[in-house]
Design a protein that fits this description.
By secondary structure, this protein is mostly helical. It folds into two domains: 7-181 and 299-328, HUPs (Rossmann fold); 205-293, Tyrosyl-Transfer RNA Synthetase (Orthogonal Bundle), CATH 1.10.240. It has 13 helices and five strands. The protein has a three-stranded parallel beta sheet. The chain has a two-stranded parallel ribbon with strand order 4-5. Strand 1 (6-12), helix 1 and strand 2 form a beta-alpha-beta unit. Helix 4 (89-98) runs parallel beside helix 13, helix 7 (125-140) crosses helix 8 and helix 10 (241-254) crosses helix 11. The longest helix has 30 residues, at 299-328. The radius of gyration is 21 Å and the shape is globular. It binds adenosine-5'-triphosphate and L-tryptophanamide (LTN). Residues 9-13, 44, 47, 134, 137-138, 146, 148, 152 line the site of L-tryptophanamide.
Length: 333
Amino acid sequence: MDESKKTLYSAVQPTNNLTIGNYLGAIKNWVALQENYNCFFAIADMHAITVRQTPAELRQKTLSLAALYIACGVNPEKCTLYVQSHVSAHARLCWVLNTFAYVGEMERMTQFKDKSAKHADNINMGLMDYPVLMAADILLYQAEVVPVGHDQKQHLEIARDIARRFNNAYSPTFTVPEGVFMKVGAKIGDLLDPTKKMSKSAENAGGSIFLSDDKDTVIRKFKRAVTDSGSEIKYDPENKAGVSNLLSIYSLFTNKSVAEAEREFSGRGYGEFKLAVGEAVADKLAPLQKEQARLLADKEYLNGVLKVGAENASRTADRTLNKVHKKIGFYQI
Ligand code: ATP
Ligand code: LTN
């Protein structure tokens, strides 16, 4: 590990298929950041079980997400890629941090309220404890930087609060992390209701583009995307949420600025514009899907990456956990 570099941490849950929202809001940025930071990228399977999962599917999705990270450009030679449940320090630090988190503040979390409403038959303690486990993830690695989508902002604030509370109660122990949110891309909207975030688990799959969608599906979904009244292709999220969302997606997939994209489509119709966005996205997804499939066929390689990843992660995580155990007064032999 290069000690002169800052540490960066992020994770995605292996639930459902990933959408282009997850890609643009999170994974795509990791690839650029991995050059300048010591990166830890986890597959958050412990978070995933806060909503009931089918065991065989969870197993398969975990491996599939590992392959996707690598297919997107995450380089296991440059960063630590691992499965959260393989590193026992996460659960152990989470327990300690639970005593620094308050029930009231957990109940007020937007995601907890949303997920409780959605899964009213299973409002389990894990769902409420989700932000504390996330704090444990980040704090174990003394991460300074955490790139996530906008929806995780509240959880990141809690992680910062917990770090400060612990540091104040004992002595400086945890680095207080900073969230990193991209200006464009941190909040990709649903294609059918652009004011809502595009989600893996949306009720209507027509509003989400999955990274696994084939070209026909991608084009069909973009053709049905809602646009706004008027006919101008202009970035104006307040008044033109649909068009602005499509411009963001186009800009991020083609690496052109939003202004360039506006110029490119000026004077052209919505139909033509939506088709062009669909084509641009589908063309980028095809090679990604192919590479993911190739990697998934080589399970031995993926297992090797995850094994080394868990060993590296454990080394760093155990160091922090030991410190914490000492500070709180757990008896050491
Ligand atoms: P679910 O809908 O199942 O709750 P999710 O789509 O929110 O899941 P997560 O695994 O919770 O996915 O999030 C993975 C990463 O993707 C996080 O950094 C999150 O902020 C980001 N992300 C999720 N949805 C979007 C979106 N629509 N736009 C930008 N970033 C997003
Ligand atoms: N809750 C996050 C996934 C996640 C995460 C983390 C992100 C779990 N642990 C630590 C950043 C840092 C989500 O995106 N839904």
